[in-house]
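G., the chain you wanted modeled:
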Amino acid sequence: MQQRRDIFVSYSHRDKIWLERLRVHLRPLERRYKVLVWSDSRIEPGMRWQLEIANALASTKVAVL
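Predicted structure as tokens:
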């Protein structure tokens, strides 16, 4: 079983600046522990967004809401 270690971030698009500011503080965790910080900005056109979110949540240890 794969260990959960990723971080899921849910935010309002009008608060995108706060997402970027949070990511600055999470970058050391990304580098040191190979943590993935996931937000819907990773969903590309044509992707099944509900499936992408469900998969991200399945591998998440921490959620920032």
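The first helix runs from residue 16 to 33.

Shout if anything looks off.
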